[in-house]
Amino acid sequence: MNPLRQHRRVLTASLTGTAVEFYDFYVFATATALVFGELFFPKSSPEVQGIAKFMVFGLAFIARPIGAVAFGHFGDRVGRKATLVASLLLMGASTLLVAFLPGYADAGFFAPLLLCILRFGQGLGLGGEWGGAALLATENAPKGWESRFGAAPQLGAPLGFLAANGLFLLLGLWLSDADFLNWGWRVPFLASAVLVGIGLWVRLNIGETAQFREALDRAPPPAVPLWALLRDHGGAVLAGSAGVVACFALFYLSTAFALDIGTRQLGYPRETFLSLQLAANLFLALGIVIAAWLSDRTSAGRMILWGAVATIGVGLLFAPGLAGGTLAIFLTLATALFVMGFVYGPLGGWLTTLYPVPVRYSGVSVAFNAGGIVGGAVTPLVAKAMTDAGHGDAIGYLLVAAGALTVLGVSLARPAPAAG
């Protein structure tokens, strides 16, 4: 096949899958902020509703490392392509079924239980998604283009966010609050089936990565890739996990948490705050593109390090920015998401260098999703608890801590030997 055509297919497959991933994940995040408290925990106080719904939201981050281990095992033994198809199917089915869930008024205790099960299933599928997409891009990249190819999955994030946020915004404009609460919120979950279908079609039309085929020619894959990974590369797993904390913390504090605070405590109309986030999302895409381009000219680790230091600065301004007026909120969110581009865009090019090919799917997936527990599950939950306890002016220090962890992880990381 023509190399240019093959590169286009690879980049499209990487970008499309991650766009679906972020769409699926963010429709859940948006629904968590806007409706899940009232629908699934109606008998609780607003404060308890807030904690409960963010605990359900955080379940996916517990499931993601389990999915990373499971899909990483098959990704390292069977191949990248088949594993990516399976992860997308599980993720898509779990998201679609949320659209058909009954609320607490109809099913009682079983309603939040089913929500938890589907959220866990969503997390399992997501656990194997990003790592495989990053490998699909970087293991097919021309020399010197690793970070730019590796940024293709990351560019799926603003696209997925744009689709999810934009659809919720349109529904909010078209529907009354009662209709939105009764059935409108289900539409984005139904729409995910279309995106998953597109993602599957693209991925079924690509081949296996060259580096994986070459590794199989040299030696059979490890019987248990996770054991080989932890035995020989445990330090790289810890460093990689710390290195991704800042990107998760920036994203979920700037999106799900900020939306919840903006609409419930600050009193902004839902459509106004969604519009602010939609515009700020453009800066995430800009940050990813700039960081990926610079990474191939310097190094991916250096760009992430710069972004981590900037995350600390964002943390010092985050709480005052959210407490300001509309312009201050927009500038805060735009700055946070632009900085996220620097700690997220180069991740594909950086994490893949830490592990040799035979255990790379497991290494990248485990590190990415373990760091996601701290940055994406714990951080918004702690921020919500701090705000409810009257300490909202200190939530930015969570970003300071996340940035410091990422600085530590990148500083301690060392590339794996070139010949895995």
From TrEMBL:
Compartment annotation: Cell membrane
SUPFAM superfamilies per UniProt: MFS general substrate transporter
Key words, A-Z: Cell membrane, Membrane, Transmembrane, Transmembrane helix, Transport
CC per GO annotation: plasma membrane
InterPro entries per the UniProt record, alphabetical: MFS_dom, MFS_sugar_transport-like, MFS_trans_sf
GO MF, one annotated term: transmembrane transporter activity
One family name in Pfam for this protein: Sugar_tr
UniProt feature coiled coil, ranges: none
Domain Major facilitator superfamily (MFS) profile span(s) in chain numbering: 10-418
Membrane topology summary: Multi-pass membrane protein
Gene3D superfamilies (UniProt xref): MFS general substrate transporter like domains (1.20.1250.20)
Transmembrane segments: 21-42, 54-72, 84-105, 155-175, 187-204, 236-261, 273-294, 300-319, 326-347, 359-382, 394-413
Name of this chain's protein: Putative MFS family arabinose efflux permease
Source organism per UniProt: Novosphingobium kunmingense
